[in-house]
Hints:
Layout: H1 14-22, H2 27-36, H3 38-48, E1 51-54, H4 59-71, H5 73-76, E2 81-86, H6 94-106, E3 112-117, E4 135-137, H7 145-152, E5 159-161, H8 172-178, E6 191-194, E7 207-210, E8 229-234, H9 243-253, E9 259-264, E10 275-277, E11 292-297, E12 300-302, H10 315-327, E13 334-342, E14 345-352, E15 359-362, H11 366-369
Parallel strand pairs: 1-2, 2-3, 3-4, 4-5, 5-6, 6-7, 7-8, 8-9, 9-11, 10-12, 11-13
Antiparallel strand pairs: 13-14, 14-15
Helix pairs in contact: 1-3, 2-3, 4-6
Amino acid sequence: MSSTAHPPTQRFPNEVLSLICEDVSSTETFWALCRTSRTLFVIAQPMLYRCVRLDGRRMSTVRNWSRTVSKYEYLAKCVQSLSLTLPELALLDPRDVQKVFTTLRKCVNLEEIEVWSSSPTPCLLPDAPFPRLTKLRTPHFRLDNDLHQFLRSHPTIRMLELLPRTSDLIPEVWMTFFNSRPTELLPGLVAFSGSEDTLPLNHGLQRIAFEPVSNNVVLLHGYAATLTTLNIVLPRLDASQVPSSFASSAATHLPALVHFAIVERQIRLPSDAVTVDQPPSAFVAPFSSLETFTLMSRTIDFFPPGFALYACDTEEGISDLALGTLNASATLNRVVIGYQVSPNKEWTCTATRGAASTRLEKGMDFEAVSMFWV
C-alpha cells in the first residue's frame, strides 16, 4: 500500500451513533450532526425534535416549525416536550392559532406543554387528547371553561402551572375543581404553581409555588405531611413581607421541607426603598430536613444583630452571606443567594457543601436553580 493512500473510513454501528446522539444536549450540536452525514441525519433528526423550545422566539419561527411538523408526521410523533411563546391576543393572527392547533393535534406523544404570553389570554390549547401528558405550564391562560375542560380530559397531568394571580371572579366550575377529590380530577397531581386562591385543597401536593398575600404560609399546613418543595415568588418584598417571616412560618408548619426558595421578581429602581431583615443564617437552622435554600433579593439588605450590614454589593459580602447560611444548618447542601446591586447589575452566589469556594455568576436566573420542575 502506498504511504500516501488514505486509510479506510471507520464505520460505527448505528447503535453506537445513537448512543453518541443521546448524549447531546445542545440544539446547535444536533443541527451540526444532521449536516454531517445522511446516517447521522436519520438518527439525530428525530432527537432534535424530541424537545422543542420556541419560547421567546418570533411567531415566524413558530410558523416554520408548524409547517415542518405538519408536513412530516413522523417528526410530530417524535415531539415529547414543547415550549412556545404566543404574542398578546390583540396581535395574534387567528390563522396562526389554527396552525398551532393543527400541529399540536399531530404531536400525540407530548409529555410536556409550556405556553407563554406577554399578557393573560384565553386558553389556546386544542381539544385533542395527549395520553402521555404529565406537565402543563400555562401561567398566562385565563381560568376559562376551555382550560378546565382540557384538564378534565388529561388525568395524567402531575405538574401544573396556572395563572399566578387573577383579579377576575373565579368561575364556579373552577371552584369545584379546586375542592375536588384526587379520584375525581388529576389523581396524580403532585406539583402545583399558581394563586393561593386556586390551590387544590384535597391533593397531597409535594411541590407548591405561589404568591402569598400575607407574611406567612399557615394556609399550607394541610400539606405538612407531603410538601417537600416550596417556592414563594413575589413581585416585591417589603417590611410587611420579609424572608424571615416566611421562613419562620414554614419551619413551624411545613416540617418535611427539603427545598425552599424565596424570590423577588420586580427590578428595584433607584427611588425604591430598601428594607433590612435578618440574614438567612438566623432562620434556616429550625428546618430539620432542608437541603437547598434559595433567596433572590432586590429590596432586602441583611443586618445580623450586633454586626455590620452584609455588603452584598461586593463579592466578599455576598459570599460571606451564602457561606454563613450554609454553615448555619447541618442538613443544607446548597445555598443560592441572588442580589440586585443596581438596576443594571445582578449577581448570584452559590455555596455548596464540600466545595472549596463559592461560585459567583452574573444575573439572577431562578429557573436555572429552582428544584420545582426537576
